Amino acid sequence: MSLSSLVHGMRRSPITADYAQKLEHQRCLSFGGGSRLVKGLLAAAIAQERGCPLLIVTATMEEAGRWAAQMETLGTVALYPTSEGLPYDLLPQESEVIWGQLQVLSQCGHLGVGSVVVATERALQMHLPAPRDLAHHCLTIHPQESWAIADLGEKLTQLGYERVSVVETEGQWSRRGDIVDIYPVANELPVRLDWFGETIEKIREFDPVTQRALDPVAVVTLTPTEYRLIYGDIYGDLNGAAHPSPAIHPQSVASLLDYLPPETLVAIDEPEQCTAHTEPWLELAARAYDPQRGHPLHRSFAACLAGCPMVRLDLRELMEPQRDLSLSARSITVPPHQFGTLAQMIREYRDQGYRIALISAQPLRTVALLQEHDCAAEFVLDGADLTRIEKLWGSRMPVALKYAGTAELPGFILPPMRLLVLGDREFFGQQHLSTYVRKRRPAASKQVDPNKLSPGDFVVHRHHGIGRFLRLEPLTVNQETREYLVIQYADGLLRVAVDQMSSLSRYRATQDQPPPLHKMGSKAWISTTNKVRRAVRKLAIDLLKLYARRSQQVGFAFPADGPWQTEMEDSFSYQPTPDQLKATAEVKRDMEQPFPMDRLVCGDVGFGKTEVAIRAIFKAAIAGKQVALLAPTTILTQQHYHTLQERFAPIRSTLPSSIASRALANAKKFSVNSKPAN
């Protein structure tokens, strides 16, 4: 909540009230001349002044993640994920995307002042079931409700939940006596329902790894695990389609806007970039659209906004004087570690009546450094203590606030609202580059699944070694019935509770003969584990030697970057992120070395891996080498092909025709129209 005081201060400005009043009459305002942080604070201040939630629309998921990480410091924020699929395709099998969408959709009906939803322009397209259809298939459970466990189990099956012995991931449920564990796909943690007779006595969250109960919850909402369950229930078998398309019944589809409250304020970050990002997708959708299906579901970005009944803010970093209201925000040009200069700046703006906020991960050190240069400041531990912060600002005292987030918060000067913000970038040169992601708690991958065990299978206990699984049997201890795995050892039987299976792992055989069973607590297993540790150490040493020899092999050393490489990279329409620049520099450094390259670039969808690959492709092409770009799906191959054409188009006229043709030759060979090899 570090920035909530800044939003509160901007909201108190008469300018914000004037903006909100203009918005009521004009329904749309355009602002320019501010960074992402300034735009976010302004949008949040206007939304709170109007008493409504805020929807922020960006061009890419990468930018949406940065917005969500920044807005997380203001209050409740939800990141709505989208895919590159078309509305005329079969419903996607990306469970993470579907579950992430359901998590946000289940919250849309309860959004209030201070709530923020961040999404890409793709969320404004028709790709969801109608809100009434989704609501009809949702199940809400409260404590003290009367439920028969058998009826709840039948309802969970209808919603697509799978019954297992131990709940580990979303879409699963289990029962142990009068306890039912459910992992809703719209929740970050599973919930545990405790029954007393026919009444749900308590509902608590629990850790799926340790199975330990956590805090109680007042309500749990269960959504279907897949959209196809909604369409299939309403329209039958849908002509036998296992994963139907929403285009089969276009009258029942909706966009994210249909789920949000009608008074929601929509803020468009860089509308021109959103429009440019929509156009390639529209071309693919137009080719896939069949007029016999009825009305088309793909719309231009302008059409999506034209049909939006909500009021709108257009936010741009560069101002267009003819139509934009100027924020007149300025960045801080003082180099890091210049504490005397920063102190002098703070004193000057303090004397002019500016509100001054110091947002830092180490606020006490920041205050101490300023005091060494005769500049007083005060640290406020509770960033939500608006009364004290306003009192300090009223006495012209700079306020230091603790920031523990990961978003990038560059300092700025906002003269219209008389606000000065300084952060760790200005004081210490530190930058936060992480983005917001949906929080996950994956289960251990080696854990034994009792549903997949058969009598006679071999398992390995952490303390006793190799044993043979016999059966799964219930036992009652202290009037509590639990299921146990019965493991046979050479000297007896061992029973392991199902919720303690983290101590078991599967036995992976290296030969056809069955392994000998160990004795419980014997030294043979300790000797075996010590022998394995020595073998792993030897393997690590051998790998080091192997890579040392490999580094001595001679490979092709690509030349350093030339003017063509620089021109191609400068044609990129967006500013590369520091992570992209770092990855590109490391890839180029590997390519320029005289030994074989061995590097893997990892990142989530929309985080900019393709741009790194394009720069490496071009570097190889102008050096006279061919490049093969492989992709897992046909649509992704076609997208990469169009991306290469678009990126190389501005410089093809300046390059020799042989080099320009070589840069696109392999993309044409792997065209989407080509047949896969047998």
Care to describe what's here?
The protein has 678 residues and is α/β, with parallel strands linked by helices. The chain contains 20 helices and 28 strands. Helix 1 (4-11) crosses helix 3, helix 2 (14-26) packs across helix 3 (36-50) and helix 17 (578-591) packs parallel to helix 18. The longest helix has 29 residues, at 523-551. It is globular and about 85 Å long. The model is unreliable at 234-244, 439-447 and 666-678 (pLDDT under 50).
Helix content: 25-40%
Distance between the terminal alpha carbons, to the nearest Å? 57 Å
Beta-strand segment tally: 28
Instruction: Record the strand order, biggest sheet.
Output: 3-4-2-15-16-1-17
Index terms:
disordered C terminus, globular, seven-stranded parallel beta sheet, 28 strands, 678 residues
Condensed summary:
The protein has 678 residues and is α/β, with parallel strands linked by helices. 35% of the residues lie in helices and 19% in strands. A 7-stranded parallel beta sheet has the order 3-4-2-15-16-1-17, with helices on both faces. The chain has a 6-stranded mixed beta sheet with strand order 7-8-9-10-11-12, covered by helices on one side.
